[in-house]
Amino acid sequence: xxxxxxxxxxxxxxxxxxxxxxKGQVKxxxxxxxxxxxxxxxxxxxxxxxxxxxxxHQHKGETFVVTIAGVxxxxxxxxxxxxxxxxxxxxxxxxxxxxxxxxxxxxxxxTGAEAVVLGTVTAVYNFGAGDVLEITHxxxxxxxxxxxxxxxxxxxxxxxxxxxxxxxxSQLL
Length: 173
Fold this sequence. Notes:
Elements: E1 10-20, E2 25-30, E3 44-45, E4 51-52, E5 54-60, E6 63-68, H1 74-78, E7 84-88, H2 102-105, E8 109-111, E9 117-126, E10 131-137, E11 141-146, E12 152-156, E13 161-164, H3 166-172
Parallel strand pairs: 8-13
Antiparallel strand pairs: 1-2, 1-7, 2-6, 3-4, 5-6, 8-9, 9-10, 10-11, 12-13
């Protein structure tokens, strides 16, 4: 079963989603609880290890217009679209009680209160109304399930499982 120690050493904190203008600026979506936190983190890098020095200029919600050191034209900015930005887990504060890094939820076994295995968390999304778990079950079928206090009864990272309300899960099938 997964435990905190087996999870990734880096945490996804943002993604470059589009170029902005002709001077090399890009739009970045921040995945941090407070979106502006992305710009005070040190050692932001791509999954390939390329380091980025970011300077935010303006933002709307979780999307920022950003200058990246060394990126000076639109063509260079376009090559970065889709780049996911990570920081070392140890550079982040530990999550508070009841909060979790999405990376720590992925791979957890999902059970009902009776310990019947319902599936595995394969992704965590947030479309604006709160976090949603993608649970893969029955081989390759996915179901989206709300990640809130009413639907999720217990999260036990060390035991590698999430206990959910199986009645709500069955209604979503």
